[in-house]
Amino acid sequence: MSNEHGNLIKNPKQLIIMVFASFFVPLIIILLLMVFVNNGKRGDSSASAEQLIKPVGQLNFKDASAPRELQTGEQVYKAVCSSCHATGAAGAPKFGDASAWAPRLGKGYDGLMTSVLKGKGAMPARGGANPADISDYELGRAVVYLANSGGGKLAEPTAPAPAAK
C-alpha cells in the first residue's frame, strides 16, 4: 500500500492552524461582503439615520378633557386625503389638476361635501376618517383647500359655534 493519500495534518501545530483558518477565512469573507453591500447604500445622503429607523406607526395620545383644536384644510388633506389625491390613485383627481377638478367644481361646495361624507367611487365615506378625530367642519375645510387648488373659488365654511358647558 502506498501512502499517497495520507493525512494532510501531520502534527498539532498544523491542526491548530487549520482550525483557525476554517473559522477566520469565512468570517473575513462575510465581513468583506457586508462592506461591499453597505457601500451601495451610503450614496443616498437624503435618508438620515433617524428616517431609516423611524417607526412605521406612532401613537398620538390626546387629553380627552382638553379643548379641541380644529385642523386646517391643509392639515386634514395631508392626514387623510393626500394618500389618494396626491397620486391620483383609484381615479381620484390630483391635487392642483384643474382639468380633473373642473367637472367636480360644477357641483359646488354642497355637492362635494355630500360626496366626501357619503363616499364616491373608491373613496370611502368621510375619506376613511373617523368622525371622532375629524369633524365635518374640518372635512369641509379640506374640501375647500383641495378644490381651490384645482382652480375652484370656494369660500371657507363657517366655524361651528363652541359647545356650551
List keywords for this structure.
single chain; 165 residues; mainly alpha; elongated; Cytochrome Bc1 Complex, Chain D, domain 2
Question: Would you kindly provide a written description of the structure presented here, covering whatever features stand out?
Answer:
It is a single chain. The chain has helices at 12-41, 49-52, 73-85, 98-105, 108-118, 136-149. With 165 residues, the chain is mainly alpha-helical. Among the domains are: 9-43; 73-149, Cytochrome c-like domain (Cytochrome Bc1 Complex, Chain D, domain 2). Helix 3 packs across helix 6 (136-149) and helix 5 (108-118) packs across helix 6. The protein is elongated and about 100 Å long. The termini are far apart.
